[in-house]
Write a structure and sequence with these properties.
One of its GO terms (molecular function) is sequence-specific DNA binding. Keywords: ATP-binding, DNA-binding, Nucleotide-binding, Transcription, Transcription regulation. This is Fis family transcriptional regulator. One of its GO terms (biological process) is regulation of DNA-templated transcription. By secondary structure, the protein is an alpha/beta fold. It has three domains: 106 residues, 2-Layer Sandwich (Beta-Lactamase); 172 residues, P-loop containing nucleotide triphosphate hydrolases (Rossmann fold, 3-Layer(aba) Sandwich); 127 residues, Orthogonal Bundle (Helicase, Ruva Protein, domain 3), CATH 1.10.8. Helices cover 38% and strands 20% of the residues. It contains 17 helices and 17 strands. It binds adenosine-5'-triphosphate. Adenosine-5'-triphosphate binds next to strand 8, helix 6 and helix 14.
Length: 424
């Protein structure tokens, strides 16, 4: 009984008053102590030394929860008591050494509504976390705040950017998108800021650039972490002065543009590594929005697969009525480094390759019949061997290789370039 136990140390009482339900775990991920509020939330206490994995099942996985610091849905349990919670982990370090984590909990407000599905600006989900993101998008859209969308390739960043624009007072104005990873720096500069005639060889006429073309609307800067440092400085100037100076020009031109940026990287880490300006990061990420990966919302995999099969059927390919259990298991266990884009490509592949009303294991692309190589965390973790295999399979066609891997062409191109550099 909680009442028969000795009173908690003063530090825990303070933590209890300041932060409510908190669980402290050591560097070995074992329970060290917890606040009385956690005990009330769970209706039981947790024994010191119990492995965290035994008492907490987060959506996604424990590693992700402990590393990314965002609030996640989870189930907390002790014996037969299980409570749906929202949890956030803060690493505890002393003299640069990890001592453990503090996990702070609140009760999940509504019971997890797995039945509720939603289509939001072309994005389908029944996942509570992603639906929460949609609600944030609706709120932020009404403001002028800069938004940074963070998510892996294929999680729907561009759709979210478009939704932010469409729902904003600028919705009737232009929406321009530019991928900062897709162009060499000098071209990127003139694409962004425009150029005047004669600014460089081939500049036969003035060009307005994306900033001016987005005047009165929104500009989506995809893969913003790839922006070279000198262009970051120019970008900051534009955002601060609200004017652009075209390449080769002198006169600043006023621009009224809302910036929506996206990246698959942790910008903070790019700042720490000296690759991204801190002042620009603060300017861009007034409201950060995190898109969960497909593997963090496994409940979406099969319904999305069926939706894509339906869509394909309407375009006249094979009619699939159901997915065989063995194929279902493979789809659900896959790491989906290319997220929803990859899932759609896999469904397209399967509907072309297989026959009959049942989608079978053998209809799935080769990577599903290979021994699993462990979960991949990022599309850019593609190794040289995977790239080589995909390129061979695609007969050297990069677009097709990217399609097979379920990543964008840009991701493939960047990865190939990185591997080339590593070879040098
Ligand atoms: N929840 C979803 N429901 C339906 N389709 C989705 C969903 N999420 C992504 N997609 C589809 O996946 C593809 C990738 O989406 P989008 O281009 O928005 O992703 P992204 O994160 O911007 O990718 P990248 O960073 O590789 O450019 C699109 O074809 C989109 O329609």
């Amino acid at each position: 009984m909680p009442s028969s136990r000795p009173p908690p140390p003063l530090a825990l009482t303070a933590l209890d008053s300041l932060a409510g339900a908190v669980l402290l775990v050591d560097a070995n991920r074992r329970v060290a102590s917890h606040t009385p509020a956690l005990e009330s939330l769970l209706g039981a206490s947790l024994r010191e030394g119990t492995a965290l994995a035994e008492v907490l099942t987060p959506q996604g996985d424990l590693d992700a929860l402990l590393s990314h610091g965002r609030e996640t849905s989870a189930r907390l349990r002790s014996g037969t008591n299980t409570v749906p919670v929202r949890v956030r982990a803060v690493p505890l370090t002393r003299a640069d050494r990890l001592q453990g984590w503090a996990l702070s909990f609140t009760r999940e407000q509504a019971p997890r509504d797995t039945e509720g599905e939603e289509v939001f600006h072309g994005l389908w989900t029944q996942d509570a976390e992603l639906r929460r993101v949609f609600r944030i998008v609706e709120k932020v859209a009404r403001t002028e705040s800069s938004v940074l969308v963070r998510g892996e390739s294929g999680t729907g960043k561009e759709h979210i950017a478009h939704a932010l624009h469409a729902l904003s007072p600028r919705g009737k104005g232009p929406f321009r998108a530019i991928n900062c990873a897709a162009l060499p720096p000098n071209l990127l500069e003139s694409e962004l800021f425009g150029h005047v005639r004669g600014a460089f060889t081939g500049a036969v006429r003035d060009s307005p650039g994306h900033f001016r073309l987005a005047h009165g609307g929104s500009l989506f800067l995809d893969e913003v972490a790839e922006l070279p440092l000198d262009l970051q400085a120019k970008m900051l100037r534009v955002l601060e002065t609200r004017t652009v100076i075209p390449v080769g020009g002198r006169a600043p031109v006023p621009v009224d543009v809302r910036i929506i940026a996206a990246t698959h990287r942790a910008l903070r880490r790019e700042v720490e590594a000296g690759r991204f300006r801190a002042d620009l990061m603060y300017r861009l990420r007034v409201v950060p929005i995190f898109l969960p990966t497909l593997r963090e919302r496994r409940g979406d995999i099969l319904p999305l697969a069926l939706r894509f099969l339906d869509e394909l059927q309407q375009r006249g390919t094979r009619r699939v009525e159901r997915i065989a259990p063995s194929a279902r298991r493979l789809l659900e266990a896959h790491a989906w480094p290319g997220n929803v884009r990859e899932l759609r490509n896999v469904m397209e592949y399967a509907s072309v390759i297989g026959e009959g009303p049942v989608l079978r294991e053998a209809d799935l692309p080769p990577e599903f019949s290979e021994p699993p190589g462990g979960p991949r965390l990022d599309a850019t973790d593609l190794d040289a061997e995977q790239l080589r295999r995909a390129l061979t399979q695609a007969g050297g066609n990069r677009t097709e290789a990217a399609r097979l891997l379920g990543v964008s062409r840009v991701t493939l191109w960047r990865r190939l370039r990185a591997l080339d550099e590593a070879d040098e």
